[in-house]
Design brief:
The complex is a heterodimer of chains A (255) and B (522). Chain A is of the alpha+beta class and 255 residues long. Chain A has one domain. Chain A is 43% helix and 15% strand. Chain A has an eight-stranded mixed sheet with strand order 4-1-10-3-2-5-6-9, sandwiched between helices. The chains are: A alpha+beta (255), B mainly alpha (522). The A-B interface holds A 2, 4, 8-9, 12-13, 15-16, 19, 21, 23-28, 39, 42-44, 86, 89, 99-103, 237, 239-244 and B 138-139, 213-214, 217-218, 221, 224-225, 227-228, 261-262, 264, 266-272, 274-275, 277-278, 281, 311-312, 315, 319, 322, 325-326, 328-330.
Chain lengths: 255, 522
């Protein structure tokens, strides 16, 4: 799977949007907050953030980058980019920046290895959605609707048994999200995901999830934008794989 | 007189020459693909391929087969032993002897030179066949096509563009000919008719943007990997080859960028396309300026390829982090020498060159490929700048003769031609004394790829009894100018003197063969 740094992605999006080519390329488009806003308006779909600890939540790490021993150094076996698809922008923390799209490595995942689980940056972000003290069980996948100020979100618990279980849950969650995606969105003319429907769907699929209350979303939306801007250099997005996605869905489940 | 040691490098000079010539096939093809003037090189290409094939035959083809294990290959119309149309040697039971591989190179080049459209059809056919064979796996087929290009089979940019467009149309239109995957080399006629019937049915305008985006994104992903590889290049030769390999794919993607930047596409794909478009612009400028410099008798070395950087340096002065961003995202800058750009002033940089092993100049192995690409004979590549004063005096000399509008470029050419004439005149008169050797060293410094100078150096070494040195020089001379029978002859004589009559016989054979070629082409 390939990744690219969120700040670079946002900057490049602003550059593309400008519809001109400069000698110094995208250098100069350095208003990160504005770039992210633009990125949000260009991305028609959902966002997902993987909250996990690289050494504690090994199953999630293995899902992102299959261990070399079993896959034989070729990390193309990682199906994350394909699972998420183009409609869901998958974000995660990475140790090294990816100024150009490149393959994700095991080292990238090693953010905050020494930090204990609850103090990890990824978890702190996840906790923002649950300010009342009902901190969710980790690791998890946050599905949310807006990059800067999310209005709705759902937290999906990732079973930590093994990477196949994680893959299965993620795939089902992504699939459910896509199924609830309404390009005309609530009559507002803006594409959106119907969150109550998504919750119901996850429930029928027997995927454990949590919806943070109204307070949670409000507090998250206040803090989230700032958090993203502050951490943009450390966040990478998975490059969606546009080919073969249909094939994966057809075979389904764990590979 | 010392005898040749039995060390592996020297036990069979002909073998060494052939294996180095085989490795040159890739850069030669890539250089030809950089600019559409392969037609002008037709005669020389034919000549070169013949020599390689003859030498290979004398050496025994089978002993080189290991060299091409895993190498991509495409069938050639005249000499092919497999029932497959192409693939990777040693994979899926594809066995291709080395002489067939050489023939594939030669024929692909010559067809491209004569009829680029025909060559494009040949590549398109094999790529579509691969696509159907792999049960319609776009990644496998595109990777195969790019691998053929990277290996130097595609000698014309038009061939690259047309084959890629053909395959893109096949894919985007959703045309399916699953029976194609079952066909073998013997059914080429039926493949041709099936394909042409199917492609005629494809409408001029295609509207399946989802499939179009799929196609572009796979090409994008494969090319992005190559960009990363290019950045990690180990030497100037390696880096240059990577640059050439990226030239065509990035051009196609730059085109895709301009189409897709006005359409809806996932931001990540657009961002990647945007970065590739930038790299392509830089790459074109860099390769183009190097070509111009080669035309104008500037030394073809590292410095020649950095003349587009002053602008970035200016940016660097004002914005510190910006240069890192540019180096990482925009231009193709090798990691091995990136620090130099950051720390050195450009002028100093151009004066000093790159004090890193392997990066200052191209190795001798690149002489023939560069010579094909730039249409400059190997003996005429000059190392070192011609001083301004010399150019001025050449111009004033011309003015005295009445030629008032001599340009710098013309003056450079005149100076070089004068120097080469002197070399040709002085060398036969040399007797190998101290002054001669000094003179020779100077010539060699100015024209390091001049086979006549290199061969003469070998003779001088031989007269001094340094046989190993002499042998090295003679081998270099053959590699620099394999068409010259004198180079083969010198090597043959040395090997004879050392008692290796079997190899000597083959080398004399090459002398005669090149002699026959030389007289025929003249």
């Amino acid at each position: 799977m390939k990744i690219i740094s969120l700040d670079v992605l946002a900057r490049e999006t602003a550059y593309v949007e400008a519809q001109k080519r400069n000698l110094t390329a995208s250098v100069g488009f350095d208003d990160l907050a504005a770039n992210l806003k633009l990125l949000q308006s260009r991305h028609e779909g959902m966002y997902a953030f993987l909250a996990f600890h690289p050494t504690v939540d090994v199953a999630v790490a293995n899902y992102l980058v299959p261990p070399v021993a079993s896959s034989g150094a070729d990390d193309s076996t990682s199906s994350v980019g394909m699972d998420a698809g183009a409609d869901i922008m998958l974000l995660m923390l990475s140790k090294a920046a990816a100024p150009q799209a490149r393959n994700i490595t095991r080292e990238d995942l090693g953010v905050g290895v020494q930090i204990k689980r609850e103090a990890h940056r990824a978890y702190k972000l996840a906790s923002r959605f649950f300010p009342t003290g009902r901190t969710p069980r980790f690791p998890g996948l946050i599905l949310f609707d807006k990059l800067i100020a999310p209005e709705e979100s759902i937290y999906v618990f990732l079973d930590n048994a093994d990477e196949n279980a994680v893959r299965m849950i993620c795939r089902k969650a992504f699939e459910a999200t896509r199924a609830c995606y309404d390009p005309n969105g609530k009559g507002l003319g803006k594409p959106a995901v119907d969150f109550p429907r998504l919750a119901a769907r996850l429930y029928t699929l027997e995927i454990p999830y949590a919806r943070c209350g109204e307070n949670g979303v409000r507090s998250a939306s206040l803090l989230f934008g700032a958090w993203i801007v502050k951490n943009a250099k450390a966040i990478v997005t998975a490059i969606p794989k546009l080919v073969g996605a249909a094939k994966t869905v057809a075979t389904g489940g764990a590979s | 007189m010392e005898r040749l040691s039995a060390s592996a490098a020297f036990d069979n000079p002909l073998r060494g020459i052939v294996s180095r010539q085989l490795k040159q096939l890739k850069p030669i093809g890539l250089m030809l693909c950089d600019m559409p003037h392969v037609a002008r090189q037709r005669g020389r290409l034919e000549h070169h391929c013949n020599i390689v094939e003859q030498a290979l035959e004398l050496c025994g083809t089978a002993s080189f087969d290991e060299l091409f294990q895993g190498h991509p290959v495409i069938y050639n119309p005249s000499k092919w032993t497999s029932d497959r149309l192409g693939g990777y040697i040693g994979q899926d039971g594809l066995e291709v002897p080395t002489d067939c591989v050489v023939r594939s190179y030669g024929e692909m080049w010559l067809i491209a030179a004569r009829q680029p459209e025909a060559a494009a059809l040949h590549f398109s056919k094999c790529v579509v066949w691969m696509f159907e064979l792999s049960r319609r796996n776009l990644e496998v087929a595109l990777r195969y096509f790019l691998d053929l290009h990277r290996a130097g089979y595609i000698a014309h940019p038009q061939v690259f563009d047309e084959s890629l467009t053909y395959f893109a149309r096949y894919y985007v239109s959703g045309t399916a000919l699953p029976e194609l995957g079952q066909k073998s080399r013997a059914d080429v006629d039926s493949i041709n008719s099936l394909l042409s019937a199917a492609m005629r049915a494809v409408p001029e305008e295609l509207n399946d943007t989802a499939r179009e985006l799929e196609f572009a994104s796979v090409l994008l992903e494969l090319t992005t990997d190559d960009v990363a590889k290019a950045r990690r290049a180990a030497s100037l030769d390696d880096w240059f080859v990577h640059n050439l390999q990226l030239r065509q794919p990035t051009s196609s993607l730059a085109f895709a960028y301009h189409v897709w930047s006005k359409r809806k596409a996932p931001p990540a794909v657009l961002a990647m396309l945007s970065q590739i478009e930038e790299i392509q612009a830089d790459l074109g400028a860099k390769l183009g300026s190097q070509r111009m410099l080669a035309d104008a008798i500037f030394p073809v070395e590292w410095r020649a390829s950095v003349c587009v950087y002053p602008e970035y340096k200016r940016v660097h002065k004002t914005k510190g982090a910006a240069l890192d961003a540019i180096a990482a995202e925009r231009f193709l800058f090798p990691e091995a020498v990136r620090d130099i750009l950051r720390t050195k002033q450009l002028l100093k940089f151009l004066e000093d060159g790159v004090p890193i092993e392997g990066w200052e100049r191209y190795s001798k192995e690149m002489a023939v490929p560069l010579s094909f690409g730039y249409g400059v004979e190997t003996h005429a590549f000059r190392s070192g700048q011609i001083p301004k004063s010399q150019i001025e005096s050449m111009k004033s000399l011309a003015a005295v003769r009445g030629d008032l509008d001599m340009t710098d470029q013309k003056a450079r050419h005149a100076i070089r031609d004068g120097e080469l004439a002197v070399i040709h005149q002085e060398i036969p008169a040399m007797r190998g004394n101290e002054t001669d050797r000094e003179r020779l060293a100077k010539m060699g410094a100015a024209y390091p790829w001049n086979a006549l100078v290199v061969r003469t150096e070998g003779i001088v070494e031989g007269l001094q009894g340094r046989v190993v040195m002499a042998l090295e020089r003679f081998i270099d001379a053959v590699l620099l100018e394999p068409r010259d029978p004198m180079n083969w002859g010198a090597l043959a004589r040395l090997v004879t003197n050392n008692g290796d009559t079997a190899t000597a016989k083959k080398l004399y054979g090459m002398t005669e063969i090149t002699m026959a070629f030389a007289t025929r082409t003249k």
